[in-house]
């Protein structure tokens, strides 16, 4: 089992920045990829950014150049740096980890609201 706990959400004005963090614990040696998803009201959950164990990153087009996913192996954390935030980035953001056999683990989610 893997436990994921997100932190860092909040209210920010358009153009502002937030940094989300996800702390992983448990059987983390089996994790081969981590990611951030988001779900806005009335919409499906979507992949925002992904990071493989080999360091390959992938971003949804709408956040390219603004968001950065990174991993700190010493602290067992994955972060999402979000710059130049827009109202359409408002959503609940979820940390995700995938094991070698395909098991998906999820955090509880953290709310990000971009509004003036």
Annotate the secondary structure layout:
Layout: E1 2-7, E2 10-12, E3 18-26, E4 31-39, E5 46-52, E6 57-59, E7 67-72, E8 77-82, E9 91-99, E10 104-106, E11 110-114
Concise summary:
The chain is an all-beta fold.
Task: Describe what this molecule looks like in 3D.
This protein has 116 residues and is mostly beta strands. 0% of the residues lie in helices and 57% in strands. It contains no helices and 11 strands. The strands form 2 sheets. Strands 2, 4, 5, 6, 9, 10 and 11 form a 7-stranded mixed sheet that branches. A 4-stranded antiparallel sheet has the order 1-3-8-7, with no helix packed on it. It is globular.
Characteristic terms for this protein:
116 residues; mainly beta; 7-stranded mixed beta sheet; 4-stranded antiparallel beta sheet
The number of distinct helices, counting runs of at least 4 residues, comes to: 0
**Helicity range:** under 10%
Termini separation: 40 Å
Instruction: Let me know the largest β-sheet.
Output: 7 strands, mixed
| Helix-and-strand structural type | mainly beta
Q: Uncertain regions: pLDDT < 50 for 5+ in a row?
A: none
